[in-house]
UniProtKB/TrEMBL annotation:
Residues spanning the membrane: 20-41, 53-72, 79-99, 105-124, 136-161, 188-210, 217-237, 346-367, 379-408
Name of this chain's protein: Uncharacterized protein
The keyword Transmembrane is assigned to this record: yes
Methyltransferase among keywords: no
Length: 429
């Protein structure tokens, strides 16, 4: 006996009704994940690139479900709580005097890793397949918007991330790539590298990861992303003796194809022009090009200065950073400029501000990011580490997603080795 269609429609709950039956904790998890995947979307206009909503939702989750943070593996719990406490202490010291909004944003670099990593790790243990699908869909969304910007209008959907209606057009007119859902192409490229890596860490399709990585060159046209891949290859090869000869061969191959690739991309684009100059002038042009110069100097020189000063903590004062910046520029004439807003390096921020107190967290980061097994996964993890060596701070909630995926990947591997197909239910050391 067939059931009338009207009766079936009455029995089938609608989307809003189904949403009402979703547990509140899952809704909060999804909100955290959304802002990890789209960290630049503005609900209200703010001056900063990365929006605070991922951190805020993860903090809400940690307060409503107190077991979220203690659910981290023991080593990660200790180091993430440690760096958060260090940030709070330095912030409290600075708070006694005059407080700048930039100093308040520095605090997020110390607090965000703890809450976002804990939230994403808990969500992965709860619904790994859902998280993997959401990351894949997010990559499609990023690339779909970016391709439409490339084909139709550079300003397509840019109102979601900036109040400047001409930002996308101005950047494309300067010879750079489209911005996607980020404030500028380099941030879009770095973010899509992280998302592609997360898909691989969670056992997703390799072609999705490859598509994400290729978009950094073909869609976002980011020279900084190419620099990340090159530095990551050198570090990755140096850590693996068997692959050193292959890395050397890759460097030689890159030198040979630099000029043809520059011609393919066109001298009118920034990345094509830079690669053409590099093929003709050699590595010296890495410090002759303004943008490359300030990125390399910002990545390494603040750390070098910190070691020159015996890793003494400098605190989060923006005035103190201004003094350090002036000292570096006066001492090294080849540096064209350094950021006024603080050390232009995610990992280096902890070494410059925290000194020897910040070093343990950076060592911990290297231990986690350099510890994955497998050729592809290990290289992608190193590339993610190098992304945060740039002016791409761990205050982005995407850092927590990447670290949680690395932790989950490691725990999954240990479970498989132990003969268990399910992720471990307790803490991991």
């Amino acid at each position: 006996m067939s059931v009338p269609a009207t009766a079936m429609q009455q029995e089938r709950p609608g989307p809003l009704r189904r949403l009402a039956h979703v547990p509140v904790v899952d809704l909060v998890y999804l909100a955290v994940l959304f802002f990890c995947l789209f960290p630049y979307v503005q609900l209200v206009p703010l001056s900063s690139y990365t929006q605070p909503y991922g951190f805020l939702m993860a903090a809400v989750l940690a307060m409503l479900w107190p077991g979220t943070i203690p659910g981290l593996p023991k080593l990660d719990l200790v180091l993430l709580v440690y760096i958060a406490a260090l940030g709070c202490v330095m912030f409290s010291i600075e708070f006694v005097g005059t407080l700048d909004m930039r100093e308040a944003s520095f605090l997020l670099s110390y607090l965000t890793p703890l809450v976002t990593t804990a939230a994403c790790y808990a969500f992965l243990r709860r619904s790994p397949e859902l998280v993997r699908k959401c990351v894949i869909y997010a990559i499609f969304a990023w690339l779909g918007v970016s391709v439409l910007q490339y084909l139709i209008s550079p300003t397509f959907l840019t109102f979601l991330i900036t109040s400047n209606s001409e930002l996308g057009s101005d950047i494309v007119a300067s010879g750079r790539g489209v911005i996607g859902l980020a404030p500028e192409p380099t941030h879009a490229a770095f973010h899509i590298i992280l998302l592609g890596a997360v898909v691989a860490f969670l056992g997703g399709p390799l072609w999705v990861t490859l598509m994400a990585l290729c978009s950094t060159l073909l869609v976002y046209r980011s020279a900084s992303a190419i620099l990340v891949f090159a530095i990551a290859l050198l570090i990755w090869g140096g850590l693996r003796p068997f692959w050193r000869s292959w890395v050397l061969g890759a460097v030689v191959l890159a030198a040979l194809i630099a000029r043809p690739l520059a011609q393919l991309l066109g001298d009118s684009t920034r990345i094509g022009s830079l690669m053409g100059q590099l093929s003709e002038g050699g590595l010296g042009l890495l410090v002759a090009d303004y943008s490359t110069n300030i990125r390399l100097a910002g990545m390494f020189m603040p750390i070098y200065h910190a070691f020159e000063n015996y890793l003494m903590p400098q605190g989060i004062s923006i005035e103190r950073w201004g003094e350090i910046r002036s000292e570096i520029l006066s001492q090294y004439s080849w540096i064209m400029d350094l950021s006024f807003a603080g050390p232009a390096t995610g990992w280096g921020l902890f070494i410059v501000q925290g000194g020897f107190l910040g070093v343990p967290f950076v060592i911990y980061g290297a231990y986690r990011f350099f510890g994955l097994r497998g050729v592809v996964l290990s290289y992608l993890a190193v590339a993610c580490f190098v992304v945060f060596m740039n002016q791409f701070y761990v205050s982005t909630p995407a850092f927590g997603l990447v670290l949680a995926a690395i932790l989950y990947s490691g725990s999954r591997d240990r479970s498989v080795a132990a003969g268990d197909n399910q992720p471990p239910a307790g803490n991991n050391s």
